[in-house]
Automatic annotation (TrEMBL):
It holds the Pfam family Aldedh. The lineage of its organism: Bacteria, Bacillati, Bacillota, Bacilli, Bacillales. This is Glyceraldehyde-3-phosphate dehydrogenase (NADP+). Residues 16-473 form the Aldehyde dehydrogenase domain. The keyword Oxidoreductase applies. Transmembrane segments: none annotated. InterPro entries: Ald_DH/histidinol_DH (IPR016161), Ald_DH_C (IPR016163), Ald_DH_N (IPR016162), Aldehyde_DH_dom (IPR015590), ALDH-related_metabolic_enz (IPR051020). Keywords: Oxidoreductase.
Amino acid sequence: MTTQLTGQKMFLAGNWVKCDRMIEVRDPQDNSIIDTVPAASEDHMLKAIEEAKAGAEIAASMPVHQRMKIVNVAADYIEVHSEKYARTIASEGSKTIREARKEVARCVETLRISAEEARRIHGETIPFDQMPGSEHRVGYFYRFPIGIIGAITPFNDPLNLVAHKVGPAIASGNAIIVKPATVTPLSALLLAEAFAQAGLPPKVLSVITGYGSEIGDVLVSHPAVRMVTFTGGVDAGEEISRKAGLKKISMELGSNSPVIILEDADLEDAVESTASGAFWAAGQNCLGVQRVYIQESIMTNFEKAFVERTNQYRVGDKQSEHIDMGPLISEKEAIRVEDLVNEAIENGALLLAGGERDGAFYSPTVLANVPTDCTISKEEIFGPVVLLYPVSDLDEAIQQSNDVNYGLQAGIFTKDIEKAHKAIAKMDVGGIMINDSSDYRIDAMPFGGVKKSGLGREGIKFSVQEMTEPKVVCFKLSTH
């Protein structure tokens, strides 16, 4: 697809702003330039924060019905222009056009749920007379917006993961400044366009494009920014937590997701679900299936069927309706994945499928017998590679599943309710999917993990809780 090079502006406190320096946005498929965006300076970010101070007051004073209307109208705008949004996602990122359309649909859903949650920010009455001497006191608590939120978003879901931060922030009466991934900023700018069209007051939202090394520290460390919400890698998350200071932090930092296949599983369903979970968005998915533990009695049959399904994946032009998987986000990332696979093979792993790189493309890859001390078995691959391991029973599968420093989501395939409940109790993760892969998620559910997988929970209702604070009110009544 040929895209006209227009040169975008960034969205600074409700105004579309140019910069002297620009960043090239390239299609990872062929490295062609599809557009340019401003390379914001520290001064731009400081101005966005200063404007957001007033924006936070404006947002907090908006009645709930106004917040709901704005977020719903933004959702309507995206739905009407859904193909434009999908083509943008598929051009600047790794997703195929079919995957991109699903992301747009999810973004619309995310915003509509956000609008609904605006009406559900409730408090509770407090029985103060539970304490002797407080018989003549009554009161309650309610939740108030935190103020200015700084959001740093990743490349792999460049529209919906931005919506997961912007929708709840506006619904709960906050101002928000988004710093999108440098390689996929266009989708975030389109989200800002939707809110501008929906009548969001100026200063409530900014989308500031630029290099994290130049503007990221300003956003996360500024004392006026009362919360940082970040989706990305562990190293960056640890750096942010050191620099943020005393403020709320919400982080989703990736995973190394396991799926367990027991001998009573529906084999066909398990193969299809785990393959989809492993190779969606070229494996660049924090929920992506990375390790599969298969009971020994069905290992041969599962492995054969899984490899056959993997070899059926059609890799190629993202914009084609007939392609299942596109490139990684850059050739550099494809080389990184290639190096991880080669390290495992050199240490004794068996290559069952894939293992081939062509520029930024890396074929869907299946490995067996991967030593547990290999990097690829311990860390997040973030690429289209899945590891198959035989296990004797559920206990061994759970033990090996937990033997990493991540814990976002997991899956288990079994018809045995007792075994399902044992996995639920024993697996050290933020979510477990029964008879589904780790990759299943709806936008309304709490989403997050344990260990290195992050802090706090996303999912609109739960994000709203993170983005608000309780305030206690107590009336001392006259005894006369």
